[in-house]
């Protein structure tokens, strides 16, 4: 009954990387019949050195690479297992790099070179390091590789992966050429420095390279060999993206491929012992044969099970029911602004989700789109805060079951304001053709408000806050302007000898970053009386007035009406005298007749021409019964303190009286 070794045992040849390594056998003892099972475990000894794929490695590292950047190194392989396998790496002493030893999911070790101190090409063009791999035997076995590092100028933008880790599930019977995952990286550089080439990282095991293929241009990872769940259940594939610059920028990512078991192994029935022939008088319960059933598949595939099919009884779920997104205006078209994510606990097609943007507001369908597969919401056009501040939309997440189930998610997109609108002047109108300006009287004290510049900014918040500055003036010491109100004040008291016309240039500027500005010109006249104002305005009247013919006919009409009025007044006077002589009582009663006050005198032609402000007006008072007509003329009504004074003239300044009456566009009728 002794069990002997018939030939030399090599654990690495029998089991490879599988641990523990065991050989099973069965012993049958007859008469009485008994069955014994035995297992021989082959223990590993440290009889293999770690081995690097090559004895020298070369790296190109740009001097602009920041500290903390990792550089994967080629991994050593040790066919021993357990403590005798590869345990750690050591790096020769140097001032720039340290070594970080990582452990994969299967327990194997790999090393990454970490930049601790930034390189300086002008100080040192190249570095020579030694990487040593050690196993855990006693004494330990080792292997070394020379690392030559060239310090060169690298691209200032390395490729960047969309995800640091990609996950994929692949059935073990997936045919060669099937897509496993698609990795994607982008590079902000232009030309060759922005062209990306995908490849396996240097420490990717050879077995992985035999089973998977990577498209260097598209980043598509496809099945190359035959996968076997019973051999390996999980693969960690390390990939890199490198641009085509003179000093290529490199970034790394990891693809975790989970091999899904399929029922590709039939149960095996083994007949251990058979009694044949069976005696006809064999008693019930007599053992006829010993049978054992095994199945190499795992889990449910290894049992004789009743499978429960999935029913689409779960609607898609999201971590949140609504999303708020803030997007600055004037954005570039085509940029992603949100990734809507949802999950479905069902299986197969019942868990495959699609994302649809429900049509409501027509502007939403015109400006937004969503990726049906991954739920990425993108902008199709540039947004304007001044046009619309908020967009509301609904995204429907639906599975592929029959019938399909769906969930609606609310999304609100808020457009934030940028300073893209300059202040716009409302008053005074920048394109006005009238020569009329604001009027202030001599003697006006300091601090009196003359006029106000009114402006608006279509932006919002701080970008719409306008400040006013006096940029240029005929007399800078005479006027000032409120910084935020736009009100123009007298800075000192006006003297009698001030210039009759003043021009102010006002600068309007908002408070946004990269402030925008506008300017406006304000004209201010210094005049005390209507006559002075009219004379000044006449001097600045255009030489070629297209309405001069109309004015001539108006003056002619006024003369004719005045003559008719004069004749009427004389006739009324004669009639009144006649009545006075007839009746003394009528004469006495007529002396007590009250004065009647007609309405305001209509604007003169200068007002109609746009030269005199509407605040200038005159009133004429006539008695209903008197031997002479009395004229009462008031000074112009202005907004200045001096404008409140009124000077009543009776039979005074006949020249001014005739001037006013002669240029009036309308005179009172005899009845008025």
From TrEMBL:
Q: Can you tell which superkingdom this protein's organism belongs to?
A: Eukaryota
Is rRNA processing tagged as a keyword? no
Question: Which keywords annotate this record?
Answer: Calcium, Cell adhesion, Cell membrane, Glycoprotein, Membrane, Repeat, Signal, Transmembrane, Transmembrane helix
Q: Which PROSITE patterns match?
A: CADHERIN_1, CADHERIN_2
Q: Where are the transmembrane segments?
A: 552-575
**Residue intervals of the Cadherin domain:** 53-161, 162-269, 319-425, 432-544
Topology class, membrane: Single-pass type I membrane protein
Q: Which CDD domains match?
A: Cadherin_repeat
Q: Which residues form a coiled coil?
A: none
Is Plastid given among the entry's keywords? Answer: no
Q: Which GO terms describe its cellular component?
A: plasma membrane
Q: Which InterPro entries match?
A: Cadherin-like_dom (IPR002126), Cadherin-like_sf (IPR015919), Cadherin_C (IPR032455), Cadherin_CS (IPR020894), Cadherin_N (IPR013164), Protocadherin/Cadherin-CA (IPR050174)
Query: Which SMART domains does the entry link to?
Result: CA (SM00112)
GO annotations under biological process? homophilic cell adhesion via plasma membrane adhesion molecules
What are the subcellular locations of this protein?
Answer: Cell membrane
The cross-references to Pfam families, in alphabetical order and at most eight, read: Cadherin, Cadherin_2, Cadherin_C_2
Q: Name one GO molecular function term.
A: calcium ion binding
Q: What name does UniProt use for this protein?
A: PCDGK protein
Native source organism of the sequence: Casuarius casuarius
């Amino acid at each position: 009954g002794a069990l002997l070794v018939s030939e030399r045992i090599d654990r690495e040849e029998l089991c490879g990387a599988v641990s523990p390594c065991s050989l099973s056998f069965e012993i049958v003892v007859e008469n009485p019949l008994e069955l014994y099972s035995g297992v021989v475990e082959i223990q590993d000894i440290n009889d293999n050195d770690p081995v690097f794929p090559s004895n020298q490695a070369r790296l190109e590292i740009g001097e602009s690479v920041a500290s903390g950047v990792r550089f994967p190194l080629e991994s050593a392989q040790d066919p021993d297992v357990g403590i005798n396998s590869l345990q750690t790496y050591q790096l020769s002493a140097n001032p720039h790099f340290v070594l970080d030893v990582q452990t994969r999911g299967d327990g194997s070790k790999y090393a990454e070179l970490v930049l601790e101190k930034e390189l300086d090409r002008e100080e040192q063009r190249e570095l020579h390091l030694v990487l040593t791999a050690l196993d855990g035997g006693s004494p330990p076995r080792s292997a070394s590789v020379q690392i030559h590092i060239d310090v060169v100028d690298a691209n200032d933008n390395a490729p960047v992966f969309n995800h640091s880790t990609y996950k994929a599930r692949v059935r073990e019977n997936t045919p060669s050429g099937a897509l496993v995952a698609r990795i994607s990286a982008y590079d902000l550089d232009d030309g060759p420095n922005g062209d990306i080439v995908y490849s396996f990282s240097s420490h990717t095991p050879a077995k992985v390279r035999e089973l998977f293929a990577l498209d260097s241009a598209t980043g598509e990872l496809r099945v190359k060999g035959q996968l076997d769940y019973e051999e390996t259940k999980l693969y960690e594939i390390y990939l890199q993206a490198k641009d085509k610059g003179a000093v290529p920028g490199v970034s790394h990512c990891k693809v975790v491929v989970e091999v899904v078991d399929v029922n590709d192994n039939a149960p095996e029935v083994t007949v251990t012992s058979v009694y044949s022939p069976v005696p006809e008088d064999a008693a019930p319960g007599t053992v006829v044969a010993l049978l054992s059933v095994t199945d190499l598949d795992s889990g449910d595939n290894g049992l004789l099970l009743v499978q429960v099919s999935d029913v689409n009884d779960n609607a898609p779920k999201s971590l949140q029911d609504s999303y708020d997104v803030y997007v600055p205006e004037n954005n570039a078209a085509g940029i992603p602004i949100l990734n809507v994510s949802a999950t479905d606990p069902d299986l197969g097609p019942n868990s495959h989700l699609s994302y649809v943007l429900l049509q409501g507001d027509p502007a939403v369908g015109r400006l937004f789109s969503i990726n049906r597969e991954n739920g990425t919401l993108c902008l199709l056009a540039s947004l304007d805060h001044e046009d619309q501040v908020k967009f509301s939309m609904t995204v429907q997440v639906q599975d592929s079951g029959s019938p399909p189930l769906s969930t609606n998610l609310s999304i609100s997109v808020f457009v934030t304001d940028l300073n893209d609108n300059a202040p716009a002047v409302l008053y005074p109108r920048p394109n006005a053709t009238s020569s009329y300006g604001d009027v202030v009287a001599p003697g006006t004290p300091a601090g009196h408000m003359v006029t106000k510049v009114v402006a608006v900014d279509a932006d919002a918040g701080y970008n719409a806050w306008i400040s006013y500055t006096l940029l240029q003036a005929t007399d800078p010491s005479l006027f000032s302007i409120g910084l935020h109100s736009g009100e123009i004040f007298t800075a000192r008291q006006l003297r009698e000898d001030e210039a009759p016309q003043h021009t102010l240039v006002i600068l309007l500027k908002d408070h946004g970053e990269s402030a925008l500005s506008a300017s406006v010109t304000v004209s201010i006249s210094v005049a005390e009386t209507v006559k002075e104002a009219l004379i000044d305005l006449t001097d600045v009247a255009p030489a070629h007035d297209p309405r001069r013919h109309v004015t001539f006919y108006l003056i002619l009409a006024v003369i004719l009406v005045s003559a008719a009025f004069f004749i009427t007044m004389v006739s009324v006077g004669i009639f009144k005298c006649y009545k006075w002589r007839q009746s003394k009582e009528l004469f006495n009663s007529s002396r007590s007749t009250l004065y009647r006050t007609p309405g305001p005198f209509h604007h003169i032609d200068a007002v109609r021409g746009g030269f005199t402000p509407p605040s200038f007006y005159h009133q004429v008072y006539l008695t209903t019964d008197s031997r002479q007509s009395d004229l009462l003329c008031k000074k112009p009504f202005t907004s200045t303190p001096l404008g409140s004074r009124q000077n009543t003239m009776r039979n005074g300044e006949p020249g001014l009286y005739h001037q006013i009456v002669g240029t009036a566009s309308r005179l009172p009728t005899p009845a008025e």
